[in-house]
């Protein structure tokens, strides 16, 4: 019946070999899209995590107004730093063995973390002149703001009635100790003094211009400028800090006078209204102390402000009588000119604010 070899072969059906390809292509496309989405989500989370763990740029710093803080609700502090129990604070300080400082808030103790890092522990005493609110202001502030010329807070303790702040250790102590205190024998050179002044000014500028809203320190003084092993300066003690809104406010009114006698701007004394210029005036007193090595209030024999003391000598052309005598050998013509220019600038600021 089959006339040739091919006539009895059944006709071939149309090949379906391309069907798996047509099915696979959409599946692959969907998988690729899903994979890209997963990668994008991971990258975004990693970027957010990195940003949250790094120092915030100056123009991105946010500060929570003090009226929203509540000691009874520790979560309101919103601190990102490590929280310690009181028992852990006792271990860190070896049962509060060595006191390295003291103020109206209480004592500052030397301490070591488990990893061997040396720290300073500021413990509020029950008889502290610094209120709980002021103490929490400092904790909140240091948790939110970061700058190389502001002291760093490592952690805190808010354990029942016990309040403590754990700071980086500043081995060279406060600036005033180098000008007139326990480090008096080791004279700061003119170059070191200039650098300390510049770094302190950078920290203060960050508070005024790098934070949103701007912050006013209200207690700028040589005992609140700390030095590390490299004599790098950092501003400390933020218990009296005030937020200031440039957009809506021309000043901040306070219910009571705070600060340290000799550093307080005259307009604040009379009006109880503070602006960033209040800090600038105080920093001017700091600059006079750095150049002269003299305290803010001198007794010769009657009490006199350092501003008046400098003015009297400069008016007589006695620049050598103003500059710290311990810096002997550093006074060439150029240096004396710079010192006179610095002192004149500070005094012009103080004259605009009136005598103190």
Annotation, overall tally of beta strands:
16
Second CATH tier, the architecture of the largest domain: Orthogonal Bundle
Please give the count of helices.
9
- Helical coverage, percent range: 25-40%
**Largest beta sheet, briefly?**
6 strands, mixed
Provide the number of structural domains: 2
Residue windows where pLDDT falls under 50 for at least 5 positions: 49-79
Report how far the terminal alpha carbons are from each other: 130 Å
What would you give as the CATH superfamily of the largest domain? Answer: Transferase(Phosphotransferase) domain 1
How are the strands ordered across the major sheet? 2-6-7-5-4-3
CATH class of the largest domain: Mainly Alpha
Domain Protein kinase: 94-356
Transmembrane segments: 21-42
Region (Disordered): 51-74
InterPro entries: Kinase-like_dom_sf, Prot_kinase_dom, Protein_kinase_ATP_BS, Ser-Thr/Tyr_kinase_cat_dom, Ser/Thr_kinase_AS
Please describe what this structure looks like.
There is one protein chain. The protein has nine helices and 16 strands. It is α+β, with helices and mostly antiparallel strands and 356 residues long. It has a six-stranded mixed beta sheet, with helices on both faces. It is globular and about 100 Å long. The relative contact order is 0.09. The model is unreliable at 49-79 (pLDDT under 50). Residues 94-356 form the Protein kinase domain. Residues 51-74 are annotated as: Disordered. The chain crosses the membrane at residues 21-42.
């Amino acid at each position: 019946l089959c006339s040739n070899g091919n006539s009895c072969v059944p006709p071939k059906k149309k090949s379906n070999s391309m069907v798996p390809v047509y099915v696979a292509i959409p599946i692959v496309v969907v998988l690729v899209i899903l994979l890209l989405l997963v990668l994008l989500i991971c990258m975004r989370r990693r970027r957010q995590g990195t940003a949250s763990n790094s120092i915030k740029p100056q123009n991105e710093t946010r500060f929570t107004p003090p009226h929203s803080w509540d000691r009874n609700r520790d979560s309101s502090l919103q601190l990102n730093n490590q929280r310690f129990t009181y028992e852990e604070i006792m271990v860190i300080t070896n049962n509060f063995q060595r006191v390295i400082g003291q103020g109206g808030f209480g004592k500052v103790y030397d301490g070591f973390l488990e990893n061997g890092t040396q720290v300073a522990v500021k413990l509020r005493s029950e008889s502290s002149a610094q209120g709980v609110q002021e103490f929490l202001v400092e904790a909140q502030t240091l948790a939110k703001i970061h700058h190389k010329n502001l002291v760093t807070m490592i952690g805190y303790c808010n354990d029942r009635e016990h309040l403590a702040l754990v700071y980086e250790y500043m081995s060279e102590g406060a600036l005033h100790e180098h000008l007139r205190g326990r480090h008096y024998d080791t004279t700061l050179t003119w170059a070191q003094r200039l650098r300390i002044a510049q770094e302190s000014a950078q920290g203060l500028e960050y508070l005024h211009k790098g934070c949103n809203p701007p912050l006013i320190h209200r207690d700028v003084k040589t005992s609140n400028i700390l030095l590390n092993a490299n004599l790098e300066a950092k501003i400390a003690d933020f218990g009296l800090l005030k937020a200031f809104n440039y957009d809506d406010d021309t000043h901040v009114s306070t219910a009571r006078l705070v600060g340290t006698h000799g550093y307080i701007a005259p307009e604040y004394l009379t009006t109880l209204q503070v602006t960033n210029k209040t800090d600038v005036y105080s920093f001017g007193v700091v600059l006079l102390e750095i150049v002269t090595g003299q305290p803010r209030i001198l007794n010769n024999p009657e009490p006199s402000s350092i501003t008046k003391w400098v003015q009297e000598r400069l008016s007589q052309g006695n620049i050598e009588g103003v500059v710290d005598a311990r810096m002997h050998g550093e006074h060439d013509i150029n240096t004396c000119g710079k010192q006179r220019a610095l002192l004149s600038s500070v005094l012009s600021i103080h004259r605009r604010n009136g005598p103190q």
